Amino acid sequence: MVSKDQAIGWVIFLVCAVVIIGYIVTLFGYTEIIQPYLDLGDVVAKDIQFWLVAAPVLIAFVAVLAIGAWIGWTMGTTPPPRPIEEIESESTTK
Rounded to an integer, what distance in angstroms lies between the CA atom of residue 2 and that of residue 10? Predict the structure, then answer.
């Protein structure tokens, strides 16, 4: 029997593996594999492939900028450290 953490790990692994396979199949085999079963009207395979690349790039770009903004906010709102002389004088007076 696996623990709860291991079960969650396996679920995460399986979901990621299915998404990876679906992404690759949709990106490279849309016209041969998916389009015959899924009628999207005027949507062209190139449009699907473009958004399959553009969406993760946009998400990654926004995530990197959000992390940079968070680091900048943290640096901007953190008070400066006390000078070393002040810390040393406190330790010598004790």
Answer: 10
